[in-house]
Design brief:
The complex is a heterodimer of chains A (about 180) and B (about 200). Chain A is mainly α and about 180 residues long. Chain A is built from 5 helices and 3 strands, in the order ααβββααα. In chain A, strands 1-2-3 form a 3-stranded antiparallel beta sheet, with helices on one face. In chain A, β2 and β3 form a beta hairpin. In chain B, strands 1-2-3 form a 3-stranded antiparallel beta sheet, with helices on one face. The two termini of chain B are about 15 Å apart. The chains are: A mainly alpha (about 180), B mainly alpha (about 200). The interface of A and B includes residues 16, 20, 78, 166 and 172 of A.
Chain lengths: ~180, ~200
Amino acid sequence: MVRFFVLFIVLLAVLFGLELTPWAQTFVVVPWTNALAGIATWIVTLFDADVVASGKVIRSASNGFAVSIEAGCNGVEATLVLLAAILAYPAPWRYKVLGFIIGVVAVQALNVVRVISLFYLGQWSFQVFEWAHLYVWQVLIMLDVMIVWLVWVRRVPATPGHPPGAPPPAALAAG
Amino acid sequence: MTTPAAARPSLSRFVLTALAWLPVTFVIWYFAAPALLWPVRMLATIITHAGFGDLVRSVSADGATLSFLTTLKPGRIDAAGIVSVDVNMLLYAFGLPLFAALTLAAGGRRVRAMAIGYIALVPFMTWGVLADFLKNIAITSSPLIASQAGFSALQREMIAFAYQFGSLILPAVAPAVAWVLTHRRFLEQLRASVR
């Protein structure tokens, strides 16, 4: 458990540091965010043709309301948290890769829902938008990451000496 | 001693219970924020007086907003007035309702886990608040104010990283980590229950 948490925190700090570099911003974060805006807009246009995307901005052509997808709302940090948690947990690499790919899809799917919901909440009530944007969705996305990780952990084969369904080792059973 | 299969927790039930608790914990958190965040205010005050005594004259709170009254001048050094920086503590404390909802959903020794988690999260919330204040005076303020603060280029880089980490990562990750650490037995049971 200690090894997992130390590794998780170190990996998270390193990954987050890398994310902030100009290279990562230019070649990963900005294209990722623009793609997210494009996907969210494409989904919205299935039932609302008045919406257009321009880079990371989603705009209503009818009333001019727009949201810009910024750091913290593009799901990059949530993805890094999931990646660090999967890498830090002892598991075969095949499970790590598969878990990460499926996990990214699950986290980003909810993130698209977040972006679309905020786009419409903002047009309805700025106060509700602020609450949902600053607090509620942050918590829901983190909860999503936790659920994905927990589901993945349950699928990972047990490590030697700790078979599936075995009682928790005394060292772990402090919660 | 093994856990009977019937007594093992189910992940879906746990998630649904946590989601059901979230609106309740959010409401309590929002209205109790001034009291819940009092330790953050105290810790931030102690650290600013100890570490940035030359920059901060006083720290006061209005609800969940912490105001740092600085010694910095808004314009020329001989100009009247001083710079005040307001920080919304809720931005760094939304993990509390998440931690509370997860703890209530997991069952067990809820009060004990809640108390341990709350105490453990105070330093991380304080980190966010202080990094926000420092970012305001060292990076996003006018060059005149930033130059009075007297931070070196390296210090400004460190403040920028501390702010980004303290606002984008810690508020959500710290409660999740605190919850995992305070519910290791529950997690073991949850992991075993799938087989």
